[in-house]
């Protein structure tokens, strides 16, 4: 699917928000608290934005179902592993940890959740993306005016989160509190 930058930002924003809703709903069901700490301040989980965009970009209409299934397993797993590794490397923190699960890799991914991502990705490709494509078709004239502000929001939120979670910031806060 050939998408322009404006459409990519739209889909990324929607999928990142839906990922935030999904994770907080899961947290509510397992921990009885809706809000789970997030890297970003706002209600967005970027890895849920990147994975569907990669799937949409790589899967053509004539792609064999076995390749689609393989992509739906590998791409979200790769995005989750990379996200976990980068967050842990740069911020010395884990926002999730699969260390207690069987068939896990460095606590960043595990087989059970990779299977969940596979089914979720198939659901997104079959049902959510066609719906979002229709919604985008209706909202496109308005989105063109709104998307620069959304990009600015993501940039500011990323800068804020990076400063908030960086070890230098934590060391500074610790010094001030002494």
Keywords summarizing the entry:
178 residues, mainly alpha, two-stranded antiparallel ribbon, 2% strand, membrane, transmembrane
Characterise the protein shown here.
The mean pLDDT is 93. The chain is globular and about 50 Å long. The chain has helices spanning 5-31, 46-58, 65-91, 111-165, 167-177; strands at residues 104-105, 109-110. The protein starts with a helix and ends with a helix. With 178 residues, it is mainly alpha-helical. It has 5 helices and 2 strands. β1 (104-105) and β2 form a beta hairpin. It has one domain. InterPro entries: CmpB_TMEM229 (IPR010540).
Output mean pLDDT.
93
Largest sheet: 2 strands, antiparallel
Shape summary: globular
What is the C-alpha radius of gyration, as a whole number of Å?
18 Å
Number of helices: 5
Low-confidence stretches: none
> What number of structural domains do the residues give?
1
Distance between the termini: 55 Å
Beta-strand share of residues: under 5%
- Helix-strand pattern, N to C? HHHEEHH
How many strand elements? 2
What is the spatial order of strands in the main beta sheet? 1-2
Indicate the percent of residues in helices.
over 70%
Structural class: mainly alpha
Topology of this structure?
Elements: H1 5-31, H2 46-58, H3 65-91, E1 104-105, E2 109-110, H4 111-165, H5 167-177
Antiparallel strand pairs: 1-2
Quick summary of this structure?
By secondary structure, the protein is mainly alpha-helical. 75% of the residues lie in helices and 2% in strands.
């Amino acid at each position: 699917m050939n998408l322009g930058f404006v459409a990519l930002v739209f889909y990324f924003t929607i999928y990142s928000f839906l990922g935030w809703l999904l994770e907080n709903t899961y947290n509510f069901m397992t921990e009885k608290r809706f809000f789970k700490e997030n890297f970003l301040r706002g209600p967005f989980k970027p890895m849920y934005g990147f994975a569907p965009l990669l799937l949409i970009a790589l899967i053509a209409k004539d792609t064999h179902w076995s390749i689609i299934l393989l992509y739906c397993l590998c791409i979200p797993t790769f995005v989750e592993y990379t996200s976990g590794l980068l967050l842990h490397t740069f911020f010395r923190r884990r926002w999730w940890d699969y260390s207690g699960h069987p068939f896990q890799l460095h606590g960043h991914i595990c087989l059970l959740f990779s299977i969940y991502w596979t089914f979720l990705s198939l659901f997104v490709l079959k049902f959510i993306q066609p719906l979002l494509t229709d919604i985008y078709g209706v909202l496109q004239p308005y989105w063109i005016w709104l998307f620069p502000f959304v990009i600015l929001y993501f940039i500011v939120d990323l800068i804020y989160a990076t400063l908030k979670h960086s070890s230098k910031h934590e060391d500074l806060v610790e010094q001030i509190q002494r």
